[in-house]
Amino acid sequence: MTHRIWHKPSRMLLVAFALIFAAVSGARAELLIRITEGADSAIPVAVVPFAESGQMPAGDKVGSIVQADLTMTGEFRTLPPEKMLSLPSRREEVYFRDWRLLGQRYVLVGSLTRSGDRVEARYELFDVNREERILGETAAAPASNTRSLAHYIADKVYEAITGVPGAFSTKLAYVTLDTANGKPRYRLQVSDVDGKRARIRLESQEPILSPAWSPDGKKLAYVSFETGKPVIFVHELATGQRTKVADFPGLNSAPAWSDDGRSLLMTLSKDGNAEIYRMNLDSRQLTKLTNHWAIDTEPSYDASGKGIFFTSDRSGGPQIYHMETPGAEPRRITFGSRYNARPRPDNEGKYVYYVHQRDRAFHIARTELKTGEETILTRTESDESPSVAPNGRMLIYATRQNGSNVLTVISADGGAAYSLPASEGDVREPAWGPLVR
């Protein structure tokens, strides 16, 4: 449900979804990337362009992709190659004094070797002050997939420095909208986290909403209006096979996967009121989790995988609630404004993120679950659809920027940001994919 509308079930069924997308213009498959704000505490790191042996594939260089990945988190400040005093590719060529003079804390060096249809990368990460190697390995990938190799290296570098797994090898799902012959065209797309290598997974003249990743990253659940009403589908990405899983009378919306991938949370109004259910995907058996006169919607599992967060207007307006176990009495989480909706918890059980209204503007905020402290994270004013990176360090959401609908990624504390606008048109409904080992 969009944060601009909150109606009782008799009025909310189609209106809440039909107005998700306001502007219609052309949208191409690939997103752009625009760094908009960095963190003051960013760690200086030098990613030296990798030396190359043999014919390398055309396109972005591996070192450039690694550098861009680290920069987009806001946690690192990378050194432009033109400011480097030398371009070492192995330990023997690294003069730590030079990198200290440049104010660098870490330096990454490496080389690429082409052999047939494969590219091998040998890379090393050094702590400049201690003059120690803290990471070093050899990795390989098909020559046609060096972008994945670069994301893998960035993940390893990120983890070596922060102690937290990187999320650069994960995927984004999102929905774009353009027009074809005067008719709307909705596209469900999947891309790398930097917006590259986007692929269209579904096209429709009717809205596509609420994409949600299965925990193994192989499926997407989403809501489609292709039959003239909201219906929940599960889509296998490798085969393209689509399965209709919820087509009850009334509202079928807001799917969210369980940790084991065997069930979906969803909002159904088949009995006259919007309630939260759990569906076993093997048996299609439904379990009703809420039973209240109010609207209960937008469920998501908490970090334990046993409880759920959801949005409800049982206190007079949309607020975030937490149910620790099925059937337990829900506890209200948010109190900072009259509107808080679409909860998305982190994977450690520390925070829940959501859309927060203040002074007629909609922001992304978070509440620390232990203390109840609320923090507004965004400076934009028309924000919706937050989704947390699987490592908990970044957050993606949809907003308007310079008259266009774009995706924006911020650090989990709101200290840095980058935007992913479509080259033209609208892009909404982001969902960050899981870490898949």
Automatic annotation (TrEMBL):
GO terms for cellular component: periplasmic space. It comes from the Bacteria. One of its GO terms (biological process) is cell division. InterPro entries: 6-blade_b-propeller_TolB-like (IPR011042), Tol-Pal_TolB (IPR014167), TolB_N (IPR007195), WD40 (IPR011659). It is found in: Periplasm. Keywords: Cell cycle, Cell division, Periplasm, Signal. SUPFAM superfamilies: TolB, N-terminal domain, Tricorn protease N-terminal domain. Its main location: periplasm. It holds the Pfam family TolB_N. Transmembrane segments: none annotated. Residues 32-133 form the TolB N-terminal domain. The Tol-Pal system is composed of five core proteins: the inner membrane proteins TolA, TolQ and TolR, the periplasmic protein TolB and the outer membrane protein Pal. They form a network linking the inner and outer membranes and the peptidoglycan layer. Part of the Tol-Pal system, which plays a role in outer membrane invagination during cell division and is important for maintaining outer membrane integrity. Belongs to the TolB family. NCBIfam families: propeller_TolB. This is Tol-Pal system protein TolB. It comes from Marinobacter salsuginis. The gene is tolB.
